[in-house]
Amino acid sequence: MTPPLIIAVPKGRILAEAVPLLQRAGIEPEAAFSDEDSRALRFATSNPGIDLIRVRAFDVATFVAHGAAQLGIVGSDVLAEFDYSELYAPVDLGIGHCRLSVAEPAALAATDDPRGWSHVRIATKYPHITRAHFEARGVQAECVKLNGAMELAPLLGLAPRIVDLVSSGRTLKENGLVEVEVIAEVTSRLIVNRAAFKTRTEVVPLVEAFRRAVDQTRAA
Length: 220
Ligand SMILES: Nc1ncnc2c1ncn2[C@@H]1O[C@H](COP(=O)(O)OP(=O)(O)OP(=O)(O)O)[C@@H](O)[C@H]1O
Ligand SMILES: O=P(O)(O)OC[C@H]1O[C@H](OP(=O)(O)OP(=O)(O)O)[C@H](O)[C@@H]1O
Hints:
By secondary structure, the chain is an alpha/beta fold. It is built from nine helices and eleven strands.
């Protein structure tokens, strides 16, 4: 018997927005999937041919790229950071809207001129995107890799600037930082393992179901 398809979904903020999309695509997760207190990692759905796994956002891309999961939901920030050739990202799901930006203390921004930078030291979870962004205009970026709470870095002298996700801007504001450049707009994408796309006949109709679910959400 063919094993179920596995869809990797990030725990955290994307999960709440992903559940209505999954439902619109005809996939009803078991109740524990939306329960942040559940310690389970793999979940059944109303479709016996589809299981869900709940993993960290950056790990969604890794599971799908290696074929351990056949599909996944992941931010375009994560996709750009890894740039896995094994991944195909056929649908913009229109959830998880935010932007990846350069930020610095308000006092520094008052006198700073980004056009004059030749070398910058940046605290970020996204060293690959950051280096590429600055290299494109001849600026060398020295990155200090952090996994969260980037906003603390300028306050504590780890790095004067950060590259992080911004949505409402509240986190920057509460830590005395201002946005000085937007690197990229971010939304979540449906990703598919390229080999699974070719070999598992259930994948194509499932991708189409997600596409319709996004259209329905937009029209609602
Ligand atoms: N403020 C935000 N507004 C909207 N979407 C966001 C925001 N922050 C992050 N995202 C999106 O959600 C994804 C997961 O972010 P989240 O903050 O939940 O991860 P995390 O808590 O840093 O993950 P982990 O704990 O697994 O390291 C990001 O990759 C991005 O695409
Ligand atoms: O502009 P805002 O609306 O304030 O959102 C931005 C914050 O959201 C994300 O963090 P998250 O809350 O997911 O926490 P974490 O990455 O530190 O886990 C991001 O890393 C920022 O810190």
